[in-house]
Design goal:
This protein has 234 residues and is α/β, with parallel strands linked by helices. It contains seven helices and eight strands. The chain starts with 7 loop residues before the first strand and ends with a strand.
Length: 234
Protein backbone atom coordinates (compact mmCIF):
# COMPACT_ATOMS: atom_id res chain seq x y z
CA UNK A 1 0.00 0.00 0.00
CA UNK A 2 1.46 3.36 -1.01
CA UNK A 3 1.10 6.64 0.84
CA UNK A 4 -0.35 8.34 -2.26
CA UNK A 5 -3.68 6.69 -1.42
CA UNK A 6 -3.91 8.41 1.96
CA UNK A 7 -7.17 10.39 2.25
CA UNK A 8 -6.28 13.65 3.99
CA UNK A 9 -9.11 15.91 5.13
CA UNK A 10 -6.98 18.79 6.34
CA UNK A 11 -3.54 19.94 7.44
CA UNK A 12 -2.15 22.31 10.05
CA UNK A 13 1.16 23.39 8.56
CA UNK A 14 2.54 24.42 11.96
CA UNK A 15 1.39 23.29 15.40
CA UNK A 16 2.79 23.74 18.89
CA UNK A 17 0.10 21.69 20.68
CA UNK A 18 -0.29 18.38 18.84
CA UNK A 19 3.04 16.84 19.88
CA UNK A 20 4.24 17.85 23.37
CA UNK A 21 7.37 20.02 23.34
CA UNK A 22 7.83 19.70 19.58
CA UNK A 23 6.92 21.77 16.54
CA UNK A 24 4.84 19.69 14.16
CA UNK A 25 2.79 19.61 11.01
CA UNK A 26 -0.52 17.88 11.67
CA UNK A 27 -2.45 15.86 9.11
CA UNK A 28 -6.14 15.16 9.69
CA UNK A 29 -7.06 11.86 8.05
CA UNK A 30 -10.57 10.99 6.95
CA UNK A 31 -12.64 8.19 8.42
CA UNK A 32 -13.75 6.99 11.85
CA UNK A 33 -15.70 3.89 12.93
CA UNK A 34 -17.18 5.68 15.95
CA UNK A 35 -19.79 8.40 16.33
CA UNK A 36 -18.82 10.12 19.58
CA UNK A 37 -21.51 12.55 20.70
CA UNK A 38 -19.03 15.36 21.34
CA UNK A 39 -16.93 14.85 18.19
CA UNK A 40 -15.79 18.32 17.04
CA UNK A 41 -14.55 17.13 13.63
CA UNK A 42 -17.70 15.45 12.26
CA UNK A 43 -16.65 16.29 8.69
CA UNK A 44 -13.78 13.83 9.11
CA UNK A 45 -16.01 10.85 9.96
CA UNK A 46 -16.74 9.73 6.35
CA UNK A 47 -13.81 7.95 4.72
CA UNK A 48 -14.07 10.24 1.70
CA UNK A 49 -13.74 13.99 2.06
CA UNK A 50 -16.55 16.17 0.74
CA UNK A 51 -14.07 18.88 -0.26
CA UNK A 52 -11.06 18.71 -2.55
CA UNK A 53 -8.59 16.60 -0.64
CA UNK A 54 -4.97 17.37 0.13
CA UNK A 55 -2.71 14.97 -1.71
CA UNK A 56 0.25 13.15 -0.20
CA UNK A 57 2.48 14.72 -2.83
CA UNK A 58 1.45 18.17 -1.61
CA UNK A 59 2.23 17.12 1.95
CA UNK A 60 5.65 15.81 0.97
CA UNK A 61 6.48 19.04 -0.83
CA UNK A 62 5.50 21.02 2.26
CA UNK A 63 7.60 18.80 4.53
CA UNK A 64 10.61 18.94 2.25
CA UNK A 65 10.56 22.70 2.65
CA UNK A 66 10.33 22.41 6.44
CA UNK A 67 13.18 20.01 7.09
CA UNK A 68 15.25 21.45 9.91
CA UNK A 69 12.38 23.76 10.92
CA UNK A 70 9.75 21.24 12.07
CA UNK A 71 10.47 18.40 14.49
CA UNK A 72 7.57 16.09 13.79
CA UNK A 73 4.56 15.07 11.74
CA UNK A 74 1.38 14.18 13.63
CA UNK A 75 -1.31 11.99 12.08
CA UNK A 76 -4.70 12.80 13.57
CA UNK A 77 -8.28 12.36 12.51
CA UNK A 78 -10.91 11.11 12.38
CA UNK A 79 -9.29 7.81 13.32
CA UNK A 80 -6.05 7.60 11.32
CA UNK A 81 -5.30 3.92 11.99
CA UNK A 82 -8.17 2.73 9.78
CA UNK A 83 -6.34 3.96 6.67
CA UNK A 84 -3.96 1.28 5.39
CA UNK A 85 -1.64 3.74 3.58
CA UNK A 86 -0.75 5.27 6.97
CA UNK A 87 2.11 2.80 7.44
CA UNK A 88 3.76 3.88 4.19
CA UNK A 89 3.31 7.53 5.17
CA UNK A 90 5.00 6.94 8.53
CA UNK A 91 7.94 5.31 6.77
CA UNK A 92 8.26 8.28 4.44
CA UNK A 93 8.19 10.90 7.20
CA UNK A 94 10.66 8.93 9.31
CA UNK A 95 13.01 8.69 6.31
CA UNK A 96 12.73 12.47 5.93
CA UNK A 97 14.06 12.89 9.45
CA UNK A 98 10.82 13.75 11.25
CA UNK A 99 9.49 12.28 14.44
CA UNK A 100 6.11 10.59 14.03
CA UNK A 101 3.16 11.34 16.28
CA UNK A 102 -0.26 9.72 16.26
CA UNK A 103 -3.62 10.69 17.76
CA UNK A 104 -5.79 7.59 18.06
CA UNK A 105 -8.64 6.01 19.95
CA UNK A 106 -7.17 2.60 19.02
CA UNK A 107 -10.45 0.99 17.95
CA UNK A 108 -8.64 -2.04 16.48
CA UNK A 109 -5.38 -3.33 17.95
CA UNK A 110 -4.52 -5.27 14.79
CA UNK A 111 -4.38 -1.96 12.91
CA UNK A 112 -2.26 -0.24 15.56
CA UNK A 113 0.40 -2.92 16.07
CA UNK A 114 2.15 -2.66 12.65
CA UNK A 115 2.50 1.10 13.18
CA UNK A 116 4.27 0.94 16.53
CA UNK A 117 7.87 0.56 15.24
CA UNK A 118 7.40 3.78 13.24
CA UNK A 119 5.92 5.90 16.02
CA UNK A 120 7.75 8.17 18.46
CA UNK A 121 4.76 9.46 20.42
CA UNK A 122 1.05 8.64 20.72
CA UNK A 123 -1.85 10.57 22.17
CA UNK A 124 -4.23 7.75 23.16
CA UNK A 125 -7.85 8.82 23.52
CA UNK A 126 -9.57 7.03 26.38
CA UNK A 127 -13.29 7.72 26.24
CA UNK A 128 -14.50 6.17 29.50
CA UNK A 129 -14.24 2.98 31.49
CA UNK A 130 -14.41 0.00 29.08
CA UNK A 131 -17.99 -0.84 30.03
CA UNK A 132 -19.12 2.76 29.45
CA UNK A 133 -17.71 3.31 25.95
CA UNK A 134 -20.96 2.81 24.07
CA UNK A 135 -22.50 5.77 25.91
CA UNK A 136 -19.84 7.96 24.27
CA UNK A 137 -19.02 6.28 20.95
CA UNK A 138 -22.54 4.91 20.26
CA UNK A 139 -20.82 1.65 19.23
CA UNK A 140 -21.06 -1.57 21.23
CA UNK A 141 -17.89 -3.35 22.40
CA UNK A 142 -15.75 -0.32 21.56
CA UNK A 143 -13.84 -0.09 24.85
CA UNK A 144 -11.71 -3.19 25.51
CA UNK A 145 -9.29 -2.78 22.60
CA UNK A 146 -8.68 0.88 23.38
CA UNK A 147 -7.70 0.04 26.94
CA UNK A 148 -5.60 -2.91 25.73
CA UNK A 149 -3.63 -0.46 23.57
CA UNK A 150 -2.00 0.87 26.75
CA UNK A 151 -0.09 -2.38 27.26
CA UNK A 152 0.83 -2.52 23.57
CA UNK A 153 2.37 0.95 23.73
CA UNK A 154 4.25 0.07 26.89
CA UNK A 155 5.63 -3.14 25.40
CA UNK A 156 6.74 -1.28 22.27
CA UNK A 157 8.36 1.41 24.43
CA UNK A 158 6.52 4.17 22.57
CA UNK A 159 6.20 7.45 24.46
CA UNK A 160 2.53 8.29 25.02
CA UNK A 161 -0.05 10.15 27.01
CA UNK A 162 -3.63 9.17 27.68
CA UNK A 163 -6.25 11.84 27.21
CA UNK A 164 -9.95 11.93 27.96
CA UNK A 165 -12.56 14.33 26.64
CA UNK A 166 -14.88 15.40 29.46
CA UNK A 167 -18.47 16.35 28.64
CA UNK A 168 -20.66 17.15 31.62
CA UNK A 169 -23.67 15.24 30.27
CA UNK A 170 -21.63 12.09 29.61
CA UNK A 171 -19.23 11.96 32.56
CA UNK A 172 -19.45 12.96 36.19
CA UNK A 173 -16.34 14.11 38.06
CA UNK A 174 -16.37 10.77 39.86
CA UNK A 175 -16.30 8.89 36.55
CA UNK A 176 -13.32 10.93 35.36
CA UNK A 177 -11.53 10.15 38.61
CA UNK A 178 -12.29 6.44 38.20
CA UNK A 179 -10.79 6.47 34.70
CA UNK A 180 -7.71 8.27 35.97
CA UNK A 181 -7.18 5.89 38.86
CA UNK A 182 -7.47 2.87 36.56
CA UNK A 183 -4.98 4.39 34.14
CA UNK A 184 -2.51 5.02 36.94
CA UNK A 185 -2.94 1.43 38.12
CA UNK A 186 -1.90 0.32 34.62
CA UNK A 187 1.29 2.34 34.76
CA UNK A 188 0.18 5.39 32.77
CA UNK A 189 2.31 8.37 33.78
CA UNK A 190 0.70 11.23 31.84
CA UNK A 191 -3.02 11.97 31.73
CA UNK A 192 -4.72 14.94 30.07
CA UNK A 193 -8.38 15.74 30.68
CA UNK A 194 -9.74 18.06 28.01
CA UNK A 195 -13.12 19.75 28.32
CA UNK A 196 -15.33 19.03 25.31
CA UNK A 197 -15.72 21.82 22.79
CA UNK A 198 -19.37 22.61 22.12
CA UNK A 199 -19.05 24.74 18.98
CA UNK A 200 -19.58 22.00 16.37
CA UNK A 201 -20.40 18.73 18.10
CA UNK A 202 -21.72 15.79 16.12
CA UNK A 203 -24.72 15.53 18.46
CA UNK A 204 -25.68 19.04 19.50
CA UNK A 205 -28.69 17.69 21.39
CA UNK A 206 -26.51 16.70 24.35
CA UNK A 207 -25.87 20.39 25.04
CA UNK A 208 -22.70 22.15 26.06
CA UNK A 209 -22.12 19.86 29.05
CA UNK A 210 -21.14 22.58 31.52
CA UNK A 211 -18.52 21.51 34.06
CA UNK A 212 -18.32 23.49 37.28
CA UNK A 213 -15.13 24.74 38.88
CA UNK A 214 -15.87 22.52 41.88
CA UNK A 215 -16.05 19.44 39.63
CA UNK A 216 -12.72 20.34 38.02
CA UNK A 217 -11.14 20.81 41.43
CA UNK A 218 -12.47 17.41 42.51
CA UNK A 219 -10.66 15.75 39.60
CA UNK A 220 -7.42 17.65 40.14
CA UNK A 221 -7.30 16.95 43.88
CA UNK A 222 -7.99 13.25 43.36
CA UNK A 223 -5.53 12.63 40.53
CA UNK A 224 -2.71 15.14 40.70
CA UNK A 225 -0.53 13.10 43.05
CA UNK A 226 -0.78 9.81 41.13
CA UNK A 227 0.51 11.00 37.74
CA UNK A 228 3.88 12.28 36.66
CA UNK A 229 1.93 14.85 34.64
CA UNK A 230 -1.76 15.71 34.94
CA UNK A 231 -3.28 18.42 32.76
CA UNK A 232 -6.80 19.83 32.71
CA UNK A 233 -7.26 21.51 29.35
CA UNK A 234 -10.11 23.95 28.77
Amino acid sequence: MIADNLVIGGMAAFSTVDYPQHLAATLFLQGCPWRCHYCHNPHLIPLQTADEKITWQQVRQHLEGRQGLLDAVVFSGGEPTIQKPLLAALRHTRAMGFRNGLHTGAPHLDLLRPLLPWLDWVGLDIKAMPSDYAAVTTRRHSGPQSWAAIEQLQKADVDFECRMTWHGELHSAEQVVEVGECLADRGVRRFAVQVARSDQMLNAQIGAGYISLAAKQTVILALDSIFECLELRG
